[in-house]
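Now for today's protein.

===
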Amino acid sequence: MTPVELSRTVLRAVRCAVEGGELSVSVPERAVVTEPGPGGCGDYATTIALQLARPAGQSPLRVAEILRPRLIGADGIRDVVITGPGFLNISLDAQADPVTGLVREIRDRGAEYGHGDALAGQVVALRVPYEVRAEVVADAVVRIVATQGARGTVEHGDPVNLRLVPSPEDPAPLGPDAAQWALLHPAPHDRPRITADHLVQRESNPLFRVRYAHARIRSLSRNAARLGFTAEPGPVRIGTSGDARPDGTARSGPVRAGTDTDAHSDGGTPTGTRNFRHPDAATPATIPHDLHPLHPLLTPLSDHPRILAAAATHRAPDRLARHLVTVADAVLPLLTCVLPCGEEKPSVAHRARLALAEAAGTVLAGGLSLLGIDAPEHL
């Protein structure tokens, strides 16, 4: 069960409670599920009871008690525990692996993962001034609203309905990709920075991190093919055979033959980056906590449809740009443990980690395309 599927399950429980006369509320459009906070337990938690308490005229704890038995009876849910004022902490069945389900969904939908019908049938008419940032943002908005079933149009003149702080200067000297990012990444009320910072190959440059993460993932796929295996969705864990040392650091060892080092032009680590190691590097790297089921990458990947819908609804490509940075930062630490080390043979675990990495690459490539930026195979 993916977080998206779990959110739908929570909403079905609310709908059943309303239809059964136990709650008198309007069923919300979505239910947020996140990692349990301090004092929580299980795989996921939701604040839906707190959200519905006031309109229902009942305490959050009572709303949680109404929803709990309906959630426990749902497929894929093993247990539900109420904590605090009314947090619902949900434990999934062992078979309902969220990594596998999410990766399969992304693989099945490909570049259309995250597309929906939030704006189905609508015509989004944008009126912008003759100004470079406004035109670039409007162009991206047209692509983004199309992912939600709308058709966008752009006209110039008054009254303007897409208001942005204009660019202080012509961004063209930065080149097409960096110029797009410089204009799209800031929030509408922030003044764009038209500086060479967008060109540096360093960790401090968000655009570099996003494009570098995609290039590394593509390199992993090529190297896996040379080693004779491909991606296959499955449970992903750290600390099992072939994954990492018990202390959470990646195992070091000789690099397998037949790998390429084209994730960066010089075949090594970009200057100034602390955690950006080539996917085949034999040096230890810190690995996140247990990847199943709450690895930091899972939340932004499952959140992608919501972010894309919000970017379309609010005409805000900056939300998508910042989301891509979150995905890149979450996937980069995983990449050091995807391929086998030394004479280790490719296993089911390697295939599953590669599938998770490729799912992140799909989201990165799709998001960059919507922003009008190239997703490089090599960097």
Observations:
- The radius of gyration is 23 Å.
- The chain has a mean pLDDT of 85.
